[in-house]
Amino acid sequence: MRKPIIVGNWKLNKTIAEAVDFISQIDPVVHTDADFGIAASYLALQASVAAAKNLIVAAQNMSHMDSGAYTGEVSVHMLKEVGVKWVILGHSERRQYWAETDQSVNLKTKKALENGLTPIVCVGETLTEFEAGETEAVCRRQTKACLEGLTPEQVSGLVLAYEPVWAIGTGKNATKEIAQNTCALIRDEVKANFGDEAAQKVRIQYGGSVKPENIKEYLAEEDIDGALIGGASLKVDSFKAIIDAVKA
Ligand code: PGA
């Protein structure tokens, strides 16, 4: 019912030339059993959009401001100008290292949607929160706060990503049971705030040490509709193996 969506988050990797080279190898082999995409650095976005015929090209962040004295920021209008239609918002690395909050993620989410971009909104608990049994409370709070003020239609069309911080870049993936349980409760929080239809339509990715070897077991779970992939999205071979693995 919900088409899976697999996005490689390149983080602070790949120059323009490297991004274009990667896309030229991957773009021809994607299939239609899932949506596939990459999230490139700001500088590589324009060339990536030009090189990608099948892949979604996403930014990894954007400002919630339109313009002004905000050194180092990139606006939604600048992303649109280079043809970007997707943006990752609230990634845990942005929350941890650049002090992003649910409130700033909410402002960015609204800004993206108002301007026709599809956001991939990330939520997820830290290791301390996980060990304290706070996963459900944290993920419900983040989901509610990040989506506050949106319409059910807007929520239906966006993508949520459950990314337990303790599983990102650590090689320690969440078990499929943990990932499924948490994606289900995030969907339930969407239902509580936006109704059943939005909850059934919204796609929820799992992210955290997803690899060619484990992607299928996540996608087999009822409430997991794809993956946000860091490390394993950087090499052509492993990205290709992921694309092959999700072929229906
Ligand atoms: P990882 O990163 O696959 O390297 O754990 C996931 C992410 O940050 O989206």
**Can you give the helix content as a percent range?**
40-55%
Mean pLDDT metric: 97
Order of helices and strands: EHEHEHEHHEHHHEHHEHEH
- Overall spatial form: globular
Question: How do the strands line up in the largest sheet?
Answer: 1-2-3-4-5-6-7-8
Distance between the termini: 13 Å
Low-confidence stretches: none
Tally of strands? 8
Hetero ligands = 2-phosphoglycolic acid
- Percent strand equals 5-15%
Q: Can you summarize the main beta sheet?
A: 8 strands, parallel, barrel
What is the number of helical segments per DSSP (H or I, 4+ residues)?
A: 12
Class based on secondary structure composition and strand pairing: alpha/beta
Give keywords.
8-stranded parallel beta barrel; 8 strands; binds 2-phosphoglycolic acid; globular; 248 residues; alpha/beta
Give a description of the structure:
This protein is α/β, with parallel strands linked by helices and 248 residues long. The protein has twelve helices and eight strands. The chain has an eight-stranded parallel β-barrel, surrounded by four helices. Helix 11 links the parallel strand 7 and strand 8. The mean pLDDT is 97. 2-phosphoglycolic acid (PGA) binds next to strand 8. The site of 2-phosphoglycolic acid has 13 residues, from strand 8.
